[in-house]
What we know:
The protein has two domains: 19-140 and 254-313, Periplasmic binding protein-like II (D-Maltodextrin-Binding Protein, domain 2, 3-Layer(aba) Sandwich); 141-251, D-Maltodextrin-Binding Protein, domain 2 (3-Layer(aba) Sandwich).
Amino acid sequence: MADREKEPRTSRPQRALKRRDLLEGATGGVLLSTLPVLAAACSKPSGSGPAPAAQSTGAAALLVRVASVPTAVEGNLLPTLVAEFEKQSTMKVELTSHNDVYTLARTGFADLVVSHYGHRDAEAFVLAGAGEWPRTLFSNQMALVGPPSDPAKVRDLPDAGEAFRRIAATKSPFVLNHIEGVQYLTEVLWNAAGRPDRAGWFIDAGKQKDEAIRLASDKGAYSLWGLTPFLRAHHESPLRLEPLVLADPLLQRMLVSIIVKPTSAASTNVAGATALQTFLLSPATQARIRTVRYVGAEHVQWVPAGRHNRTAMLPKV
């Protein structure tokens, strides 16, 4: 359900997901930014294009604009949590799903950013003074997927390295998913498995995401991908694959929130962003995170990560 995993750099806005796709099972006033606004924010340098709305006083202070990577939105997590936040507060949330969330933030179209900790732009954004220190919120789940027949007998193993060793030992086909973060994880598992010879079973066809997973489905092969995008792809067009290994903590990938600082070019609703971030870190919300599912899925997809933050900044209970 990555970063989607790391997406290629693009100046074109991702197609906004339809409201019914975002809110499967969720309720509340989650708003989506319009494509013209997204295009203006992501295609023009900072300081050009239509001016973002002021967020400091009046009615604007009751609106919190959140820019999130697609994983947390299409996986139904943020829409569900935002709906609960709106029920408990006087504020409304405008939720935008986009890969280039930090461009939106730099150009004044976001008060709070939610992205993977390792997003390509997160470090530069914070070090430039544009955002506050990242706060860990939750992890999304990677999955080792494979054919239902499971020829390598890896189903439900708690050790992904052992699963990879069995795949290599049985020469069961494995398709490399060409996403940077997934390639890195594959190398970790290959080393953990004892660096087995890749001849005859390891397939590197240069494909990524849906294409890689559909190739694995066609070949009855194993592969790695985020559980949320896998379930989405399977929902769109059934795959002859199942999530087989999920329990290893190595398969979790951390997401963070970053409060956007006001600049001379744009003001931001820091108070609103802080209130929403505090809500997301509250014990009740962290517990709720574990229960959110993609429609039709039974697996735990989201793991609370609030406790990884400095204790003094967590909500008082």
